[in-house]
Amino acid sequence: MAPYTILDELTLAVGQISISRYLCGVALVLSLYDWLLLLEAESETVWKGRWTLPKIIYYFNRIVTPAGLMAANYQLTDQRSGVLSACMPLLHHPVFCSDVPSCRAYTFANSLIELLSFFLSNWLLTLRLVALYKRKPLVVWFLYTFLITSYLATLGLMVYTLYTFGLSIHYSSILHACSSNTRSPLMPAIFLAPAAYECTLFGLTGFKAWQDSKLFYQSSANAPFLTVLYRDGLICFVIMMGVRIWNVWIYATQPLSAAYLGIYLLWATMTILSTRVYLNLAFLVRGRHDTETAAVSRVKFASPHRLGGIQMRVQTTTVADNDQTITFGSGGRQNRRMLTTFDTVGILSFVYVRD
């Protein structure tokens, strides 16, 4: 019975690697297609803005994710016929041009870059939530502490998992991919700490949405802005959590040959969703309304202090074309003067003084 068991395992591994190739290709296509689809809107909004922390994160993930997925597709391709071809993405140095060092170098490098991209995606979503809470110190420090702690724990788990995975790593001439026979029991736990952080982001976003729900009824000018913020937050959470749970299930229940099955889709998904949240907000803020009266919505993507952030200022007043304000409820007109102030940490504020 043993030969049949080994044959069954080999057949299953070949099938799972084959599916992984297709899903990795899908992840790359989604990443590139989404970028090309939004390139015009991006050039009119994000690209024209000054270089700030959110913008740097945006373009880093936009560039690094397709590059990493291209490397992953090459690593999984079945067109390579020899061991030495596994070192082609690396320098042709004797240390790297063999199956074990090249596979180990690829696995460590691509996995750590992927984790960095995950961290930056969650950081971009964190900046948005910090802005929603108007940079309240307690919220800011709680979120950043949770974010850094969760990803440091994830980094430790990943390094241990990669070390265990690399003990028997080799280039399989049957699977035409880097493979291993050793796995860490902590592999599913890699996804748990970031998942807990994303649940926290969603919970705080939902609480803030409940607090701000009255603004939907008080002013139609605020409705599009808040709708985009909370709609995107809900969509991000549902999709990212679904893909994370799928990956946890894969690493907890499936053979080691399924290791590449869902991880690259998670990479593409997190980059697409986090950058779309940023782009949608930038597009809404920079959009022009060809009307005589317009709601004043001041949203700034800026990094005024070392933690960086997205600064938002929403005015619930209507500005007429004669530079007077109409306050809600009173219907009266008042002249206005704008004062620009900075607080103790350098956060820009706009104060309107009515004469």
Under CATH, the topology of the largest domain can be stated as Rhopdopsin 7-helix transmembrane proteins
What would you say the CATH architecture of the largest domain is?
A: Up-down Bundle
Q: What top-tier CATH class of the largest domain fits best?
A: Mainly Alpha
Helix-strand sequence? HHHHHEEHHHHEEEEE
Strand content: 5-15%
How many domains make up the coordinates? 2
Strand numbers in spatial order across the main sheet:
3-4-5-6-7
- Strand tally: 7
Structural class: alpha+beta
User: Low-confidence parts, pLDDT < 50 over ≥5 residues?
Assistant: 81-86, 88-96, 288-355
Residues in helices, as a percent range: 55-70%
Mean pLDDT: 76
Rounded radius of gyration (Å):
25 Å
Distance between the termini: 91 Å
Main sheet overview:
5 strands, antiparallel
SS field, number of helical segments: 9
Shape: globular
Keywords: Membrane, Transmembrane, Transmembrane helix
Organism: Serendipita indica (strain DSM 11827)
Transmembrane segments: 20-39, 108-131, 138-166, 186-207, 228-252, 258-279
Domain DUF6533: 22-66
